[in-house]
Amino acid sequence: MRALGIDLGTKRIGLAVSDLSGTIASPHSVILRTKSVRLDHLKIAEIVLQEEVEVVVIGLPLLMAGGHGPAAKAATTEARRLSTVLSVPVEMFDERMTTVAADRALKEANLSATARRQYVDKVAAAIMLQAWLESRHLRE
């Protein structure tokens, strides 16, 4: 099953896709936010069709203690809105520390701060999606 992972940001949306077997997540792309959330969602819908995605997994930015703060509430609201545009199921999954882990990995690869900004969102989406894929295999 091919999945699309989404890291919702205020300026950029990071995307990652799984392989067809649903085993490995890879960074896909970054969508720069426009002033229209609907337009941003339509871009995601195009990618869902192009990549033949069967499920969309949106990162849920929980507080470190596990609660729902303003960012988690905003992500949940946007996930609900996005689900009205897509023809596939939309799930949410804990994304705590994914951006930190992505930035650390990019630093270790000796990328400059400017270069890291270009990649960090899609790498964070891939880290989150990989964790979702692994948790899914554990449940099966």
Key traits:
alpha/beta, globular, 140 residues, single chain, 5 strands
- The radius of gyration over CA amounts to 14 Å
Mean pLDDT: 90
Percent in strands: 15-25%
CATH C-level name: Alpha Beta
CATH fold assignment: Nucleotidyltransferase, domain 5
Distance between the termini: 13 Å
CATH architecture: 2-Layer Sandwich
Described by its quaternary structure, the protein is single chain
Order of helices and strands: EEEHEHEHH
Strand order of the largest sheet: 3-2-1-4-5
Written overview of the protein:
The chain is α/β, with parallel strands linked by helices and 140 residues long. The chain is 47% helix and 23% strand. The protein is built from four helices and five strands, in the order βββαβαβαα. It has helices at residues 37-50, 70-83, 98-108, 113-139; strands at 3-8, 12-18, 25-32, 55-60, 90-94. The protein has a five-stranded mixed β-sheet with strand order 3-2-1-4-5, with helices on both faces.
Q: Which SSEs are present, and which pair or pack?
A:
Layout: E1 3-8, E2 12-18, E3 25-32, H1 37-50, E4 55-60, H2 70-83, E5 90-94, H3 98-108, H4 113-139
Parallel strand pairs: 1-4, 4-5
Antiparallel strand pairs: 1-2, 2-3
